[in-house]
Amino acid sequence: MEEFLGIATTEWVGYIASVGVLISFLMRNIRTLRIVNSFGCGAFIAYGVLLDSIPVIATNTIIVGINLYYLFVKKQ
Q1: CA distance 7 to 23
Q2: Residue 25 has pLDDT above 80, yes or no
Q3: Residue 49 above 70 pLDDT?
Q4: How far apart are CA 23 and CA 9, in angstroms?
Q5: Which of 36, 38, 32, 12 is nearest to 23 (CA)?
């Protein structure tokens, strides 16, 4: 696996995903929180694919689905 600044690409994806989810919890507006959280979870899905980790992929896919449900089906 390639490295950037001595850190593997897979790890960078994990760090980016973590920051995305963390930032989402700083949002005051629930709609914005769900949107930002979905991007963070999408990055975690990519991370899970890189790690070949079904639990990481499944959990974050379900979270994205819940976010999309509340964003588009059950509008507040």
Answers
A1: 22
A2: yes
A3: yes
A4: 21
A5: 36
